[in-house]
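Box S2. Input/output pair 1.
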Amino acid sequence: MVRAAVLPAVGAPLEVTEIDLPEPAAGQVRVRLAAAGVCHSDLSLSDGTLRQPVPAVLGHEGAGTVVSAGPDVTGFAPGDRVVLNWAPSCGRCHFCAALGEPWLCENAGAGAAVPYARTTAGGELYPGLGVAAFAEETVVPAHAVLPLPGGVPLTDAALLGCAALTGYGAVHHSARVRSGEAVAVFGVGGVGLATLQAARIAGAGRIVAVDVTPEKEELARAAGATDYLVASETTAREIRALTGGHGADVAIECAGRAAVIRTAWGSTRRGGRTTVVGIGRKDDRFSLSALEVFHFARTLTGCVYGDCDPARDLPLLAGHVREGRLDLGALVTGRITLEEIPAAFEAMVAGRGGRSLVVFGGDGDAPAPGTGA
């Protein structure tokens, strides 16, 4: 039995309880979690914005140590430090094999629909996004486990599972930020803070952070922002004023709201690029006129998982961590327990703080949990 935060039904409160976690079968690995990040996608799963069979154990951004592996699994042994991959590529579908775009894998989400554990009463439980990291331990397919390179604290490494890869990839793979370019980042949560750091690593010139609350300015500037704006109806105009009247070369939207995407688009120069990272609702729409699409010659692109191949990019990010260019701990504004996840959701909705990190005991390099969301 292990403790886990269970979502009994869509829209229902999480319940911290014991679950019956089986030993790994063929092709599976059991992992003891050191930490798990609380991502906006978890909130979207809990409220039905994103589909997830229930009851489920949410949490998809995690790191820990291998407990055991299935009989046919090679390459992993008990005690190995690993990062969990919520979107493992199959290597066989059109996007993986023909296009070399594993972040768009047709089968990446298949694990979320397969029961992986049971309640104490014997009912089936599903793993949120195939990972189920809001638990002391989890069982996942071996291809959803990535070796953690040396030199990265295990608790901080949880952020590599989603926020850091997404923010880094949005800058370096999707938007392809070049040295000296002006970048505007909309939304200063966990992914937004990672995006700001990635823009700084890319050598961006002016880096403008935008959020709905003035309280995030210090976090944004510490991550690399040269300017900070509180979102308003004049945000696009203010960004143009900061960039010689032209607009930003690149805007990266991390909030997942149509109105923010529209503002991000409007804040870029002619020929500028807007990358949408945030996951929004399917009924949240915005419009562009045919004339402005022609006249401004801007591009608008979606961005799934930062257009990252985790097997390729995780070692690169670990190198940035070791060299002091990427500070994973700076993304975290609260180290919490399983019981405090609902408060972390509330903080997210209210726009407070960066990433909340659920910290489990026994990993050896984690501060004590319970320091707030």
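Box S3. Input/output pair 2.
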Amino acid sequence: MAEYDYDLFVIGAGSGGTRASRVAAAYGAKVAVAEEYRIGGTCVIRGCVPKKLLVYGAHFAEDLKDARRFGWNVPECDFDWAVLRDNVLADVDRLNGLYTQTLHNNGVETFIERATVTGPHEVTLASGKTISAKYILIASGAHPHVPDFPGSELGITSNEVFHLDTLPKRVLIAGGGYIANEFAGIFNEFGSHVTMVNRTDVILRGYDHSMRDRLLQISLMKGIDFRFHAEFNSIEQNADGSFKVSLTKHEPFDVDCVVFATGRVPNTKGLGLEEVGVQIDSKGAVQVDADNKSSVDSIYAVGDVTNRVQLTPVAIREGQAFADTIFGGKPHQVDYNCIPSAVFSHPPLAAVGMTESEARNKLGSVAVYTADFRAMKNVLADRNERALYKMVCDGMTGKVVGLHMIGPDAPEIMQAAAVAVKAGLTKDAFDQTVALHPTMSEELVLMK
């Protein structure tokens, strides 16, 4: 008889857990997954996928207006939030079914219930069933952080945005990161009055200062309000159902919805990890080595629960590397250098490599090239919104060490450009490439 019930038991069926499960099973391992919510995880169910669909929906607000400048007799159009919401949720159901089917097709057994770790080789399901496994993989993801102050329970997070009954007329979004800026753009385009509240005066910390400043400028121009250097004192519900928000250093004001986008916390609480010897850091993340192994030899972790790089493609890479290394006989580690990222704000922003400040601190000698222009479509649409591209190069070798863009379709352009940066190409290699005209992406090879 087998020593364990399973070769691998995975807690969490998000992007990293699903990839690790199906790849391990394809190598011949006996695999089971426990998921307490829905197969697919945050990205598919209540994160990047449904959010991107809302972004697409929001873009029509400007596209319909711009169409008139291109000769289309577009009438005044009303927006029906319920139609978009229900269609997005229906697509989430479709994807949930596909992810579930993928696990089934690969012979992975699924348990739709919570699982906790009760030993180095043991998990216990919410139903009380105890299961043994040679390896346990923690892929439980993360959840939105909600600050603690009087009335904070009256707010919602990105999880609940997709289920709003009606579109709020006045929205407060707390935070300055990518989730906050994305939902600010979405609600603003849908016609809500948006106020962003941030503890500092910096949005999108970690991105290049030129891109941050440009997004702030455009957001202000679009009518988004900002309250900087603000901490929450309290939220109180008014008689009409709206909320009175009290902040430090600012006058109180009323809104119809408060959305917290103040970071994400690894899902380790109550999993029993510390009880079996798994080391958890001060932020609640599982501490792992380069091979995703925790302080307990039989327990591994991938994805947001490790709080390394909270991006879906990174979780997928980590799940793949884990399965290849442990079950496939092809050991390798994830390379975290030059990971491209995007913010699906209005307009979107994308980046790969070092910011200008990081490059100056690390390299000393730096050459910076920029393109500041108005896209052709915006010119004819009479939309005064400029795109900005920045290339950061090693001043000694000409190697491109960072590329940053804000403007229409910036993330779509960045994916291909990131290959060049990852490959270590030089500014000269870009210069020698013939421009593809007329496109926005040609600015990449024309920067001065």
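Caption for Box S3: The first helix runs from residue 15 to 26. The radius of gyration is 24 Å.
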